[in-house]
């Protein structure tokens, strides 16, 4: 496949996913005001979403590019294009599911600027409307407050980590340094998802599902998307 066609497909996928994330309204599921699972405080992100997006795409692409140009005898298909295509697939799936699942985040009330010091109703959400957002930041928080399932931080981090781990296992010599690099990659890949759970931006099962889908996506992308194999010099 021509490189420019690859780039065009990836750009279209990115634009579609980006618009879905910021423009697609979430389904407004009902809730109870006395639900303790959505009353956590609003804490800042430990890992900014831009770090996850650009760190797991550009950085891994650079690593794959360097490894292929250092060790490859013959390049049937650039592994970094395969990686990015799979990464865009899991990113778009995440953005689609977030919008249509509509699960409330643990910090849902705080994101909607609900006054915790005031007496809380005990009824269902339809009986007591939430405050209307006033600023652009409030509007963003209101939209984000219903996009808990599943964690994009955990899915994209685990996808990148597992893809690199599989790549090293298949292509590089099996020694202690490669094993340490694989384990280090997996730990780094798990970190964004763990922080999302600790900072009350996701429920624990949102993070667990993200890890699972990220790992499965990495396996499918590596072995089944454009099934060509780069041959490495074993000397």
Quick synopsis:
With 235 residues, the chain is an all-alpha fold.
Please tell me what the overall shape is. Answer: elongated
Give the total of beta strands.
Answer: 2
Task: Give helix % range.
Answer: 55-70%
Radius of gyration (Å): 20 Å
Overall SS class = mainly alpha
- Side-by-side strand order of the widest sheet: 1-2
Q: What's the SSE pattern?
A: HHEHHHHHHE
Pick out the low-confidence regions.
Answer: 229-235
Q: Mind describing the biggest β-sheet? A: 2 strands, antiparallel
The span between the termini is: 29 Å
> Mean pLDDT, nearest integer?
79
Kindly estimate the percentage of residues that lie in beta strands according to DSSP.
under 5%
> Tally the helices: what do you get?
8
Write the layout of secondary structure elements.
Blueprint: H1 3-23, H2 49-71, E1 72-74, H3 79-101, H4 108-111, H5 136-144, H6 152-171, H7 176-198, H8 204-224, E2 231-232
């Amino acid at each position: 496949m021509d490189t420019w066609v690859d780039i065009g497909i990836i750009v279209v996928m990115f634009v579609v996913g980006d618009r879905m994330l910021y423009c697609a309204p979430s389904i407004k599921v009902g809730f109870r005001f006395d639900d303790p699972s959505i009353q956590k405080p609003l804490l800042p992100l430990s890992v900014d979403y831009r770090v996850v997006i650009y760190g797991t795409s550009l950085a891994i692409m650079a690593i794959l590019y360097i490894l292929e140009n250092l060790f490859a005898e013959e390049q049937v298909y650039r592994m970094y294009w395969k990686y990015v295509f799979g990464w865009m697939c899991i990113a778009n799936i995440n953005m689609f599911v977030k919008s249509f699942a509509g699960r409330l985040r643990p910090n849902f009330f705080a994101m909607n600027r609900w006054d915790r010091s005031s007496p809380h109703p005990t009824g269902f959400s339809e009986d007591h409307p939430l405050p209307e957002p006033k600023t652009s930041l409030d509007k963003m928080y209101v939209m984000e407050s219903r996009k808990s399932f599943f964690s994009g931080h955990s899915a994209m981090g685990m996808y990148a980590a597992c893809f690199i781990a599989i790549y090293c296992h298949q292509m590089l010599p099996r020694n202690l340094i490669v094993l340490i690099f694989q384990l280090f990659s997996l730990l780094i890949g798990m970190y964004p998802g763990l922080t999302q759970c600790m900072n009350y931006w996701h429920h624990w099962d949102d993070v667990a599902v993200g890890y699972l889908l990220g790992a499965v996506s990495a396996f499918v992308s590596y072995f089944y998307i454009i099934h060509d194999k780069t041959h490495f010099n074993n000397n």
